[in-house]
What does this fold into?
Amino acid sequence: MPSHHPRTSPGRRAFLAGAGAALAALALPAAPAVASERPAGPFGRYGSPAARLTEKTLYVHPGGLGDHTSVRAAVDAASGTGWTLVLAPGTYRETVAVSAARSGMTWLGASGDAKDVVVVYDNAAGTPKPDGSGTYGTSGSATVTLQAADFTAHAVTFANDFLRTDLPGNPGTQAVALKAQGDRSAFFHCRFLGHQDTLYADSTSLSAFARQYFAHCYVEGDVDFVFGRATAVFEHCHFRTLVRTDLAGPPYGFVFAPSTARANPYGFLASRCRITSEAPDGHYKLARPWVPSSDVTARPSLVVRESVLGAGIDAVAPYANMRDAHPWQAQRFAEYRNTGRGAAVTVPENRPQLTPAQASSAVRGAYLGDWTPAGAFRL
It folds into this structure.
């Protein structure tokens, strides 16, 4: 995603150990217990290599107590469909790609707490590739890339800990934690940590309207940190905007940057969520539209409803343009019954609101169609 901001960054990698007071306040519920009498171990109640839940369950442990010591090795071994990966607590510093052929894959954080299982790397768009063939680009910077349909993750952290100071003067500071492209991708009680372009909710092609669901998740970042063309529903999620010591004043960044295809009636929906900030009041915009060069007819869509918008959001002018040729007013941006200081309607023309009749169609079922994600993982 483009950025008009200077490319320096606060020295901040502590978020891998958690997101400080914000995460403590979030208090994500633990994963539901599986009906099992197995004793707890590094894989909790999800069995072990000696007592597998199913024939298609693989166990990952950084110290060698599982089938594999890395998530990538387990994914590579799980050829075909319907595999489950149980991830023991640990920090897995690696990049991982789940190909389209590996549909129906599930990742389970064994402890039920996403803070315990972290998949992280630090590539950025401007990071040179080791083979000298250029830089990674935004998509190539992703720590985890998911192309498979029917992917589910529970209690896992996806992170990119690149800092702007890692590449001083380099404009390629986009650094993706997760790029999700598959249809029917679901994430429960997960964390997505980064700075610019943290969560890339995408699809495999312009004509593919991938549906994605995020429930009780935590997402943090600064510039366009939830972006892409997927149909993505966020329910009961917490978005956290970060401080920017490299900038003299606002705006520090943008929470959402959808790039919805014009033919897609549904883009991003954030329902019963909250947005907090460690930055000063009014230093963040709620959203700006992304109309990429690959789809100049895109008409970005975002609805934020019944959510709490903290004081970090600019209540007077919560939306901005990415390019003047594509003004936000020409896109599909709307709100409904939001509360909090950042939701105050002081300039009505700057805050388009849904009518009750319109809001009745801006719901999970309309966005996800015939797909109903499981509310909690069951085996």
Summary: Residues 4-12, 17-39 have pLDDT under 50 and may be disordered. The CA atoms of residues 59 and 67 lie 5 Å apart. The radius of gyration is 20 Å. The chain is about 5% helix and 25% strand.
